[in-house]
Amino acid sequence: xxxxxxxxxxxxxxxxxxxxxxxxxxxxxxxxxxxxxxxxxxxxxxxxxxxxxxxxxxxxxxxxxxxxxxxxxxxxxxxxxxxxxxxxxxxxxxxxxxxxxxxxxxxxxxxxxxxxxxxxxxxxxxxxxxxxxxxxxxxxxxxxxxxxxxxxxxxxxxxxxxxxxxxxxxxxxxxxxxxxxxxxxxxxxxxxxxxxxxxxxxxxxxxxxxxxxxxxxxxxxxxxxxxxxxxxxxxxxxxxxxxxxxxxxxxxxxxxxxxxxxxxxxxxxxxxxxxxxxxxxxxxxxxxxxxxx
Length: 293
Ligand code: A3P
Hints:
Elements: E1 9-11, E2 14-16, H1 24-28, E3 37-41, H2 47-59, H3 64-69, H4 72-75, H5 90-96, E4 103-106, H6 115-119, E5 123-128, H7 131-144, H8 154-162, H9 171-184, E6 188-192, H10 193-198, H11 200-211, H12 217-226, H13 229-234, H14 268-281
Parallel strand pairs: 3-4, 3-5, 5-6
Antiparallel strand pairs: 1-2
Bound molecules: adenosine-3'-5'-diphosphate (A3P).
The site of adenosine-3'-5'-diphosphate has 21 residues, from helix 2, helix 7 and helix 13.
């Protein structure tokens, strides 16, 4: 599908495209329900992975039909996404969900979250990924995703990432903003992509304990198997193969799923400059990432 790449603009201090701001009033006035579960992430941090885990934890046993027929992006609506020519707006999809709980995904930085989620004390799962792998994944995604701004070459993309001129803004502001919020609001479960790769079963147990779920060990093991990279890649409902704006000839949505792929992209000089810049930007010493496991 031939779509013009959108321009980015400064939106209340955060770079965005119109696909995520055109429905702003409805997003901001969205009515959360107390049992809603939100998956919040900076793009390319493992949103789809954790959305799928949460969906399976809640519905695998009770609604096998839905699990096998409905694409994940319909089961877990993307709140702020607005492209009415092709998709039902995220707010409407969420309103139409008949399941309880609703699982809703967002990439909004913490200061943009609709206030109703805080008022209803909704549980929020935040997933963060180390900056180096995050920017590599974002670069490949923007090459593939026609409704993202023109990615340019790797060198300029990396510079733009450091400058925070990415859709949904600065990685630094995003991960730190949500980290700080977590210190004040106990209903945030802050997870790391690297931990999920290292030990998916342990992270699923952590999610169960946060959500008050107690599936059997056998059930947890089945879910762990279903959310392995190769299994999700082979599943058209989780590899987002229905997404007409992705160009699969460039890259699969489920691309590599590794920790440390940045080493195949950063030159030695880029890595040194990145580390120096990172030290300046990450003032919060309590938030630590692993770039290898
Ligand atoms: P890569 O591009 O590094 O492969 P998001 O869902 O936030 O867009 O994140 C996408 C990234 O998560 C992609 O990273 C994708 O491959 C990875 N991912 C998704 N499911 C995964 C899984 N089951 N195991 C490992 N990585 C996964």
